[in-house]
Specification:
Strands 3-2-1-4-5 form a five-stranded parallel sheet, sandwiched between helices. A five-stranded parallel sheet has the order 10-9-13-8-14, sandwiched between helices. A five-stranded mixed sheet has the order 15-16-19-17-18, covered by helices on one side. The model has no long low-confidence stretch (mean pLDDT 91). It has helices spanning 22-33, 47-56, 83-95, 133-146, 151-168, 172-182, 186-192, 196-209, 212-215, 235-241, 255-258, 281-293, 312-321, 334-341, 390-399, 429-432, 453-456, and strands spanning 14-18, 37-41, 60-61, 75-78, 100-102, 115-119, 122-126, 219-224, 246-249, 266-269, 272-273, 276-277, 297-302, 325-329, 354-359, 379-384, 407-412, 420-425, 442-446. The chain is built from 17 helices and 19 strands. Helix 11 (255-258) links the parallel strand 9 and strand 10 (266-269).
Length: 463
C-alpha cells in the first residue's frame, strides 16, 4: 500500500492552489466542497475559480508563486503546466512541513486526490495510487450506478440513534452486533424506499428490546476459504469473516484472504504443515471454545472446504459438546479450484464418468490406501497432501493395474498467482521432479482428463 487512505477534516483551514486553469479548478471545487478556505496564486485565474476563492474566504493572488504564500496554509496543491515550477512549489512546501499534491506527478507530492463517491455522510474514495486516474474514475462510475443515493440518509438515521443505543447497551461489542443485525433487517429497505419514519420506528423498538447478554453470546464460524484466490470466497464467507472479532487461520489461507478481516479483529495463526505443527489440532479446537466463551465471534478460516480433508468435523465436535452456537460455510475445495484453474475437467464424457478424492497420507503418515479401488480407467482420482508420497502413489497405482502411461498432473499453489502445473505420466513424473523445488500446497490429479490440460489450460504458464 503506497498511500494511506484517510478522511481529513478541512473546514475553515487554508488550502493553497498554485495555478489558475482547468486542472486547478477541478481541485478547487473539491477543496471548496470540503469546507477549506481556498487561496489561489497564478498570473491568470479563471472566473469560476475566482468565485470559489471569494465564497470560501480565501485570497486571490494574481502573480507568480512566492514561498511566503505558504504561510498559514494547511496543504498545498500545485496544478500548473510548468513542471519545474511544480517541483519548486513541492520543495518549498516540504521545507515548511506542509503536505503537497503535484497534479499528474504523484512522485513529487505527499498525497493524491482519489475519485470520490459522495453519499454524505458516506464517502467512498477510489485510488490507483496515481498509476491510472482514468481507471479510478471508471470504478467510481460503476459504484455510483449501483449505490442508491439514500445510503447517506441511512447513515444519518443511525447517527440519530447512536446515543440512545449507547445508553441502553454499555458494551461496545454488543452495540456493534446490534447494528450488524439491524443492517440485515428491514431498516435498510425502508430507508432506501423513502419510508424513513417507518425505519425510525423499527429502530426505536429494536433498541427498546435490545439485550446485552443475548447480543454478546459467542459464536464460531467454520469458513471455507477456498484454494487460494480471494475471488473464490463466497459472499457468506466474506460477510462472516468481516463480522468476526477473532480470526484463526492456517498456512493454506492466503494473505489476501486474511487481509479481508476487520482491521480491529484479532488474528491468530494456527498453521501447520506435514509433521510440523505450529499448534496441535486439540489446541486449535480448545482455542475456538476459549474465544467463544468470552462472547466473541470467532472465524476459523480453513483452506478449501472445511469438511473435505479440513478436519472441520473434529473442530465442530468440541463446539457442539460445549453448546456453543456455530455456522459452517462451505468453500470451493482444492480439487475443484485447482483443476479448473489448471484447465483439467475432473469429469468428461469421453474420459471420466466419476471422480474420487483421496488423502495422500493417513493419520499415521503412511500411504496405505485402498489401491484396488483407485485404478479404474474411467475415474479421475485426486490426491490431497500427496507430494511427499508421490513416488509411492504412482508405484502403487501401477502395481494394482493402472497403466504406466496414465496422465498425471501435479498442481502447486493452485489458483494463486504462483500456480504451477507439472504434467507427466505415472511412470515418469516422480523422476521428472527429482531434485526440483515444488512448493506446497500441492494437489495430484490422475486420469486421462489430464491430457486435456494443454488445450484447456488458461490460468498460468505451465509445464
Amino acid at each position: 500500500m503506497e498511500f494511506l487512505p484517510i478522511s481529513w477534516r478541512l473546514q475553515g483551514k487554508g488550502a493553497l492552489l498554485v495555478g489558475g486553469g482547468e486542472v486547478a479548478l477541478r481541485k478547487g471545487r473539491l477543496l471548496h466542497r470540503s469546507g477549506a478556505r481556498v487561496s489561489v496564486v497564478a498570473p491568470s485565474v479563471c472566473a469560476e475559480l475566482r468565485d470559489i476563492v471569494v465564497q470560501s474566504g480565501g485570497k486571490l493572488l494574481e502573480r507568480g508563486f512566492e514561498p511566503a504564500d505558504l504561510d498559514g496554509q494547511a496543504l498545498v496543491v500545485s496544478a500548473t503546466d510548468d513542471s519545474s515550477l511544480n517541483a519548486w512549489v513541492a520543495e518549498q512546501a516540504s521545507a515548511k512541513g506542509l503536505p503537497v499534491n503535484v497534479v499528474d506527478n504523484p512522485s513529487l507530492g505527499d498525497f493524491i486526490f482519489p475519485a470520490i463517491v459522495d453519499r454524505s455522510p458516506i464517502l467512498i474514495s477510489i485510488s490507483s495510487s496515481g498509476a491510472s486516474p482514468v481507471l479510478a474514475r471508471k470504478l467510481r462510475s460503476q459504484i455510483e450506478s449501483s449505490l442508491p443515493a439514500r445510503w447517506g440518509r441511512l447513515a444519518d438515521l443511525m447517527a440519530k440513534f447512536r446515543q440512545p443505543l449507547k445508553d441502553k447497551l454499555g458494551n461496545i461489542g454488543a452495540r456493534r452486533l446490534f447494528w450488524e443485525k439491524a443492517l440485515e433487517g428491514p431498516v435498510v429497505e425502508k430507508v432506501l424506499a423513502g419510508k424513513e419514519s417507518e425505519a425510525e420506528a423499527i429502530l426505536a423498538q429494536a433498541i427498546e428490546e435490545a439485550d446485552t447478554d443475548r447480543l454478546s453470546r459467542g459464536e464460531v464460524y467454520l469458513v471455507g476459504a477456498g484454494p487460494g484466490d480471494p475471488d473464490l470466497l463466497t459472499f457468506r464467507a466474506l460477510r462472516l469473516l468481516q463480522k468476526a472479532d477473532v480470526v484463526l487461520y492456517d498456512r493454506l489461507v492466503g494473505k489476501g484472504i486474511v487481509d479481508l478481516a476487520r482491521r480491529d479483529a484479532e488474528l491468530v495463526y494456527v498453521g501447520k504443515a506435514r509433521d510440523k505443527h505450529a499448534l496441535p489440532q486439540d489446541n486449535i479446537n480448545e482455542l475456538l471454545v476459549h474465544y467463544a466463551r468470552q462472547g466473541k465471534k470467532v472465524c476459523r478460516l480453513k483452506g478449501g472446504d472445511p469438511f473435505i480433508f479440513g478436519r472441520g468435523g473434529e473442530e465442530i465436535d468440541l463446539i457442539v459438546q460445549e453448546g456453543i452456537d456455530f455456522q459452517v460455510v462451505p468453500g470451493i475445495t482444492a480439487a475443484s479450484g485447482c483443476a479448473a484453474y489448471g484447465g483439467i475437467p475432473l469429469t468428461h464424457r469421453d474420459h471420466a464418468q466419476s471422480v474420487r478424492f483421496v488423502t495422500g497420507h493417513r493419520k499415521d503418515g503412511s500411504v496405505d490406501l485402498d489401491w484396488q479401488h483407485l485404478v479404474s480407467e474411467t475415474e479421475t482420482v485426486v490426491f490431497y497432501m500427496g507430494l511427499v508420497g508421490l513416488r509411492q502413489i504412482c508405484q502403487k497405482l501401477m502395481e494394482h493395474g493402472r497403466a504406466a502411461d496414465t496422465p498425471i498432473a501435479l498442481v502447486s499453489r493452485g489458483t494463486t498467482d504462483l500456480q504451477e502445473v507439472i504434467t507427466g505420466t505415472l511412470e515418469n513424473l516422480p523422476d521428472d521432479i527429482e531434485g526440483r523445488e515444488v512448493h506446497a500446497p500441492t494437489l495430484i490429479i490422475v486420469g486421462s482428463v489430464v491430457s486435456l490440460h494443454p488445450r484447456f489450460g488458461w490460468f498460468r504458464k505451465s509445464n
